[in-house]
Structures are given as C-alpha cells and as structure tokens.
Amino acid sequence: QVQLVESGGGSVQAGGSLNLSCAASGYVDSSCKIMGWYRQASGQERELVASISTGLVIRHYANSVQGRFTISRDVTKNTLFLEMNNLQTEDTAVYYCLYCMPSMISLNARYRGHGTQVTVSS
Fold it and tell me: Is the pLDDT of residue 30 over 90?
C-alpha cells in the first residue's frame, strides 16, 4: 500500500500563491510512472489540473491553469509538488494527489490522497 499525504493548502487572496506537496510513503511501486493533481470544487465535476511522468519528464496541464501552475516531483523523496501562482477565485477547490495514473490525462489512479483545501478570495 502507498499512503499519500498532501499539505500546503490554505486561504489566499486572488493573485497570491500557494505550494502544495504530496508525500508518498509505504510500498513505492517503481512501475508507477505518472503522478498528478486533480481538484474538485463544491458541486462541480473533478478536473485534472496537472500530471507529470518520470523518465522523459513530460508534463500536462489543464488549460485553466497553464502558465500559472507548475508541477514537479522529487523522485528521491517520493514527493510531488504543485506550485500555484496568480491564484483566482475559480481555483478554489479541494486538491487531490494522484499516484500511479494509467495515463497523463486520466482522473483515475491506483492511489489517491485525502485532499487539501485551497480557498481563494477576491
């Protein structure tokens, strides 16, 4: 089993920044190449925010966050990051870490974190 623990969520004013982290512990499956973040706002569908693969280090971003968010990972520490800049009120949501995704654009994964709340006020 893999445990995922997200941190870094909070409240910020529009235009501000937050940095999310997701630490993976337990059994780390070396066959898992893709990690990512998705978010879900209250009453809304899930939205894949960003994903990243090892090896060639390919990154994918939702159009809504392109240019504002940056996904990265520290393979040695099994930690995933999401740097969020110029946050807008529409970025308010619970953000979830995904580990071992089947593809760069999938909302499914073998493991998912419990989520961290991000609230952006105007």
Answer: no
Q: Are 68 and 85 in contact (CB under 8 A)?
A: yes
| Per-position b or e across 42-56, b if 16+ CB within 10 A of its CB | eeeeeebbbbbbeee
**Helix/strand number for the chain, H first, E second:** 0, 11
pLDDT in tens, 37-50: 999 999 999 999 99
Q: Do residues 34 and 52 lie in contact, with contact meaning Cβ atoms separated by under 8 Å?
A: yes
Question: Given pLDDT bands bounded at 50, 70 and 90, which one contains residue 76?
Answer: confident
Spell out the alpha helix ranges (H) of 1-122: none
Residue of 11, 46, 1, 38 whose CA lies nearest to 22: 38
Confidence of residue 68 (pLDDT cuts 50, 70, 90): very high
Give the integer Cα–Cα distance in Å for 108 and 90: 23
Measured torsion, CA atoms of residues 61, 66, 67, 72, in degrees rounded to the nearest 10 = -20
